[in-house]
Automatic annotation (TrEMBL):
The keyword Transmembrane does not apply. Residues 8-84 form the 2Fe-2S ferredoxin-type domain. It comes from Mycolicibacterium diernhoferi. GO terms for molecular function: 2 iron, 2 sulfur cluster binding; metal ion binding; oxidoreductase activity, acting on the aldehyde or oxo group of donors. Pfam families: Fer2 (PF00111), Fer2_2 (PF01799). This is (2Fe-2S)-binding protein. InterPro entries: 2Fe-2S-bd, 2Fe-2S-bd_dom_sf, 2Fe-2S_ferredoxin-like_sf, 2Fe-2S_ferredoxin-type, 2Fe2S_fd_BS, Aldehyde_Oxdr_Iron-Sulfur, Beta-grasp_dom_sf.
Length: 173
């Protein structure tokens, strides 16, 4: 009897580069990026979707890559923190993180930046959060709203006030 095939051929667009790979069907997107493609911007923190260190943008939406099977992202456009900016200048969110001193050790920073970009897009689209007062209008990105929307991204160094300042700076620009 023939053995079942437990692998899949995938094509991913990662930070603007088309990548083809064959992975075990149980491989997470995070492991496919880091171990198969050498993309190290997303970090493996908890491997349970609780810390946000692995947050990336998949087709423009933020996602914890440790909870996503790579096969589910076949054909997707993936943006990591390394794929932001234009090669000459940092993305405005990354620049704001630098300017506002919104990191200490930096381990969570790539996930924080990707999450912040995705969060701003969600807010612009009118998606409410738990603390949004008026569900009929676009949410105002005050500090409470930003904190709530970023609550899935943890920082062991506790740089939260500066992270909020950096995000608010971009939101107001």
């Amino acid at each position: 009897m023939a053995q079942p095939n437990h692998t899949s051929d995938l094509t991913l667009d990662v930070d603007g580069e088309r990548c083809s790979l064959t992975v075990d069907n149980r491989v997470t997107l995070l492991d496919a990026l880091r171990e198969h493609l050498g993309v190290t911007a997303p970090k493996k923190g908890c491997d349970h979707g609780q810390c946000g260190s692995c947050t990336i943008l998949v087709d423009g939406r933020r996602m914890t890559s440790c909870l996503t099977f790579a096969v589910a992202a076949d054909g997707a456009h993936i943006t990591t923190a390394a794929g932001l900016g234009d090669g000459e200048r940092l993305h405005e969110m990354a620049q704001a993180f630098c300017d506002e001193d919104a990191f200490q050790c930096g381990y969570c920073t790539p996930g924080q930046i990707c999450s912040a970009i995705g969060m701003l897009d969600e807010a612009k689209a009118g998606s409410p959060s738990y603390v949004t007062d008026d569900l009929e209008s676009s949410p105002e990105l005050d500090e409470d709203e930003i904190r709530e929307r970023m609550s899935g991204n943890l920082c062991r160094c506790a740089a939260y006030p500066n992270i909020v300042s950096a995000i608010r700076r971009v939101a107001l620009s």
